[in-house]
């Protein structure tokens, strides 16, 4: 079946460090891939998405590239800020009738 | 409405009571999801509605949980005979179609005492 795997957290980084949160997926066909973010005390919101292979989604300095050959959608940011502290969820949406599937989430804490 | 609306935002109930949670999706969104998020945990899928198709109930944890949706409008999640382990934030999300991003409500925080 379809599934999403994320690196386990929590992840703690110093401000201005480089961030990578790994995400790999299992799915047939050509799913759309998403990263959602949940800031403390807030609801989930879409951070970025990619709908086909080799697409790069980007927003707020975050990037993720849809790699079909490695079935991955790793989230990266070159220089994190304290305000990036949140839980990040990788998600998969199929093209056929199916629900969006979320990974377990990765908690990120950025310290000054 | 402008976004997904959930009510109530907080609910405290006694063990054994029934509760009903409501979700108003974004107008025109055919897909609607319910998830559960326990404190410090990830999202646990509960149920998925897509248009007039039969809902995907594969995530409902027990027969005490049920959900309904009328057409492409409001959905209610009902938990019967609540237990303490039901305490969590219940999140509703809707999307325009099955393969587009989901928009989440703020959730209902349920506390069973």
Instruction: Return the average pLDDT of chain B rounded to an integer.
Output: 91
Radius of gyration of chain B: 13 Å
Q: What is the number of helices of chain A?
A: 0
Percent of sequence in beta strands of chain B: over 45%
Give a quick account of the main beta sheet of chain B: strands, pairing sense, barrel closure. 6 strands, mixed
The backbone outline of chain B, from C-alpha atoms, is: globular
Q: What is the string of helix and strand elements of chain A?
A: EEEEEEEEEEEE
The chain-level structural class of chain B is mainly beta
The biggest sheet of chain A amounts to: 6 strands, mixed
Question: What's the gyration radius of chain A in Å?
Answer: 13 Å
* Assembly form of the protein: heterodimer
Instruction: Tell the overall outline of chain A.
Output: globular
Terminus-to-terminus distance of chain A? 41 Å
- Largest interface, counted with CB-CB under 8 A? A-B, 26 and 24 residues
List low-confidence stretches of chain A.
none
Q: Portion of residues in helices of chain B?
A: under 10%
Explained architecture:
- Chain A contains no helices and twelve strands.
- By secondary structure, chain A is mainly β.
- In chain A, the strands form three sheets. In chain A, strands 2, 5, 6, 10, 11 and 12 form a six-stranded mixed beta sheet that branches. Chain A has a four-stranded antiparallel beta sheet with strand order 3-9-8-7, with no helix packed on it. A two-stranded antiparallel ribbon of chain A has the order 1-4.
- The radius of gyration of chain A is 13 Å and the shape is globular.
- In chain A, 39% of the residues are buried.
- By secondary structure, chain B is mainly β.
- Helix content of chain B is 0%, strand content 46%.
- Chain B has no helices and ten strands.
- Chain B has strands at 5-7, 10-13, 19-24, 31-37, 44-50, 65-69, 75-79, 88-95, 103-104, 108-112.
- In chain B, the strands form two sheets. In chain B, strands 2, 4, 5, 8, 9 and 10 form a six-stranded mixed beta sheet that branches. In chain B, strands 1-3-7-6 form a four-stranded antiparallel beta sheet, with no helix packed on it.
- In chain B, strand 8 (88-95) and strand 9 (103-104) form a beta hairpin.
- The A-B interface holds A 31-32, 34, 36, 42-46, 49, 51, 89, 91, 93-105 and B 31, 33, 35, 41-43, 45, 48, 50, 53, 56, 91, 93, 95, 98-107.
